[in-house]
Amino acid sequence: MPNVNINPDDVMIKLRGLKKIFGSQDVLLDVNLDIRRGETMVIIGQSGSGKSVILKHMIGLLQPDEGEVSVDGITISTPKYFDARTIRRKMGMLFQMGALFDSMDTGENIAFALEILDKSSKEIKDTTDYLLDLVGLRDRRNLFPYELSGGEQQRGAIARALANKPDVFIADEPTGNLDSKSAMQIIKIIKGLNDQGRTIIVVTHESYLDNITRRIIRLRDGQIEKDEINQHPIDISKEEFVK
After folding, report:
1. Are 24 and 48 a contacting pair, CB within 8 Å?
2. Residue 2 banded pLDDT, cuts 50, 70, 90
3. What string of H, E and C letters represents the secondary structure of 3-55?
4. Least confident residue range of 21-30, 106-115, 230-239
5. pLDDT tens-digit profile of 137-146?
6. Which residues have C-beta within 8 Å of that of residue 151, sequence separation ≥ 6?
């Protein structure tokens, strides 16, 4: 996922001295990271390395014990000083396993995300149709999550995460437990989102993803071990990807 026209001074998300403790366990230790607008970044680490905890700080679901988090220039690490809804509308989050609502069909899952934003009936229909087309699920709109494959569930969850037209798209283990074909479909959709100008953050334990993005953050035991630039990422539009 090559990045183009990235302004190194235009920081979308900034983490400074981030520390988080759960009980007696240090989960994050002095994490410092700048994520630039329009950038695609993969954060790689094994289970327990603190990957998902970092994401939850980025979207304001967790507050650090020490340090600061800012999104688009707004400090969000002190709850009373920011509007959580305003910040979260800048972000679309793809959770592990998709997390679609079992009681709703695919179209309803997407429409629900628009309803809570007080969109008109026409805008809800038009946007739902557009997003279903974007992820290739127009013919699956009336199916419930249990009737979809794992890859289709993930694509449906991506569509729902895009309902608020976010500037930042965050994916937590987006290809976990998917076959190679489904994984490639998800990666191509995410690449397309970056091509539209969105900032992309992918968290994974699967090291093969470092071949397709330019910037790789390697996390170990709650600390950034390496911040690397891949000078020759694979162009997935031209090459076959093997998981």
Report:
1. no
2. very low
3. CCCCCCCCEEEEEEEEEEEECCEEEEEEEEEEEECCCEEEEECCCCCCHHHHH
4. 230-239
5. 999 999 999 9
6. 178, 179, 181, 182, 183, 185, 186
Residues 174-192 have a mean pLDDT of 87
**Which H or E run contains 71?**
strand 66-71
Structure letter (DSSP) for residue 118: T
From 55, 79, 68, 88, select the one nearest 15 (Cα to Cα): 68
Q: pLDDT at position 215, please?
A: 92
pLDDT score, position 238: 54
- Split at pLDDT 50, 70, 90, the class of 168 is very high
CB 14 within 8 A of CB 73: no
Burial state string for 64-97 with b = 16 or more CB within 10 A and e = fewer than 16: beebebbbbeeebbeeeebeeeebbebbbbbbee
Which CATH number among 1.10.287.110, 3.40.50.620, 3.30.365.10, 3.40.50.300 corresponds to the domain 10-87+205-231?
3.40.50.300
DSSP readout, 158-187?
Answer: HHHHTTT--SEEEEESTTTT--HHHHHHHH
In this predicted structure, what is the pLDDT of residue 154?
92
pLDDT exceeds cutoff 50 at 205: yes
3-state helix vs strand vs coil in the chain, percent to 5 = 35, 25, 40
Token representation of residue 165: 């037209």
CA dist 48 and 195 (Å) reads: 31
Q: Where are the domains of the chain?
A: 10-87+205-231
